[in-house]
Amino acid sequence: MNRNFQWVIVGALVALVGIGLYTAKDQLAAELFPVKIGNAAPNFQANPMAPGSVAKTIADYKGEVVLLNIWATWCGPCRVEMPAIQRLEEQLGPKGLRVVAVSVDVAGMENAINTFTEEMKLSFEILHNPEGDIQRGYQTTGVPETFIIGRDGRIRRRVIGAPMGAEAWDSPASIAYLERLLAEPRPQ
Predict the structure, then answer these.
(1) With left for phi above 0 and alpha for psi between -120 and 50, is residue 149 left, alpha or beta?
(2) How far is the C-alpha of 78 from the C-alpha of 70, rounded, in Å?
(3) Contact call for residues 140 and 171 (beta carbons, < 8 A)
(4) Nearest to 150 by CA among 186, 174, 125
(5) How much is the pLDDT for 167?
(6) pTM to 2 decimals?
């Protein structure tokens, strides 16, 4: 074997290993980079329920305090927690809290989402992610799952399930916590 051919083989092997590592990173991203408190909120793309509206991403909420709720119309605990989220939005929405609820119902369930929204008298932002990408990006364990995102774009709290009683979304403790986040200065 001549020297040039050896370098071609070495180059091909290095390229193959690089491609393998890149593929493994994509396949194992959730295990390698878990979503946890303090991490930057993962990006997502979800569609507003209004026809012809432009899809929303995490960048649309830059500098805001966001309660990001991932839910579905068929989810009993989601139905239980929505009135408390609505009351929270009524109290803290005027102070700047952005409540964003992303339905992960499959495609074609838009009427069911709209009916759910009307029945529950929800006035906060309802988005739809029928592909479920948001669940993979935020590594949810099910629905409902809620993330509090600070003005700095970092996850401050993660709540699995529907909090009840003293932990409910409209409880004094939750309101006080969110008011502290709303008092933080906006990033420059």
Answers:
(1) beta
(2) 9
(3) no
(4) 186
(5) 93
(6) 0.84
